[in-house]
Design brief:
Blueprint (H helix, E strand, L loop, with lengths): L4 H11 L3 H8 L5 E5 L19 E4 L9 H4 L3 E3 L7 H8 L6 E4 L6 H10 L4 E5 L3 H14 L4 E4 L13 E7 L12 H6 L2 H18 L3 E11 L8 H10 L2 E4 L16 E3 L9 E8 L22 H5 L6 E6 L2 E6 L3 H10 L2 E4 L1 E7 L2 E4 L1 H5 L9 E4 L2 H8 L12 E7 L2 E8 L4 E3 L23
Helix pairs in contact: 4-5
The structure holds S-adenosylmethionine.
Amino acid sequence: MDLPELFRERMKSLLGEEYASFENALTTDAPVSIRLNETKSRRMPSLERVPWASSGFYLSSRPSFTMDPCFHAGVYYVQEASSMFLEQAFRQHLQVDQPLVLDLCAAPGGKSTHLASLLSGKGLLVSNEVIRARVKILAENMTKWGAPNVVVTNNDPSDFSRLRGFFDMVVVDAPCSGEGMFRKDAASIAEWSVENVKLCSERQRRIVADIYPSLKEGGLLVYSTCTYNREEDEENVRWMVDELGTELLPLDVPAAWNIASEGLGYHFFPHRTKGEGFFLALLRKSDDSGSFKTKVKQTASSSKIPAVFNDWLNAASDFQVSARNDTFYALPKGMAHLAAILESELQVVQAGIVLGKVKGKDVLPDTALAFSSLICEEAFETVDLSWKEAIDFLRREQVLFQNSAKGWVLVRFDGHPLGFAKNLGSRANNTYPQEWRIRMEADESRYEPIWRD
Ligand code: SAM
């Protein structure tokens, strides 16, 4: 691998005699790993486990995920294994019954889908991405994951200063110089320079300083990067302790995991662990920056809510259905007022599960409902598609339902909902979102089921 000479020198001084095995590891293939969506999958696959993540698994090779309908159904997320270490910070230190969690730098959604699983329907996750073009993929991935207690926002870190003392946990998976991604992403090698490392480090401090007021007293700050250098990692953590007054929290890490630490966070190196380069530190806010106070806002009156939503939702009484423009969405009852506060302070892209909209006498179910853990599948005519039909559906092509009644059909593959089609008899309208459609031609020879439920 053609590494910048200065990077080599810096890594040699960081790793000493381990450097040769580090450079050698960069010449091997990056491991492939997935994280299972336990609300969708009905059993654990018999695959090698990622030791620090309860739903993380390694695959022996990289299949064509595009050709797997279960990938599109949000049954699993393809995520680099080291990043799943976030789970340890969450499980070992977050002791709040209904946590309010912010994932500040969230696109494309690896850590947000993980956090949504860890929250397991409790509390609220605000999944934010500042770059507008990247919010779309974040919203798509969160929709497919299907958790109802998620709000996706598109804000600059400084906008969150309006929410003083709001969050129990803030995750800053910071934009960085990407040294840990060199094996996977040649562009990050080309962009690397000592000047860029410095710029990244300064930007990371600005991001953390901007977001810090939104953390509650006693709240947890997870700071992570996918880079190795001290400027972006240890020195920034030292700055958070010295300048912001945060307290560094230790994690219980079994020696067998081979994670490196000099006391200011945890490093994953590809020659030591099966994964890419990653760094994570967990800190606690010890001072009181004031708590968020606002009048609880009234949300939309239930009088205009179509009654059919009660049939479409499991445990409908646990959810509040509200209207946003002409669209109805559901949020867990205890969280709906918080989502309304977020709506007034931030640029909310989506909140909870979009159920559908009213058009004339018809109520049109939204694709998000199909992906959601809330859907009551019995309320719909369901059709299980073959692999080819499922790919055609995901390519937004015509699918025929000759044996089904006219009306809304919930289409599934291997039991997992993929969306809705309106069966008109001689043809059906495919409502799979245009911007999500698969552009690749169907090629069954490239389809390898990762596992079957
Ligand atoms: N957490 C994501 C995941 O697990 O899938 C990966 C996040 S990536 C390491 C960093 C993110 O920070 C990118 O999505 C990038 O667009 C965003 N970003 C870039 N500049 C930023 C800034 N000034 N403030 C906040 N986020 C920024």
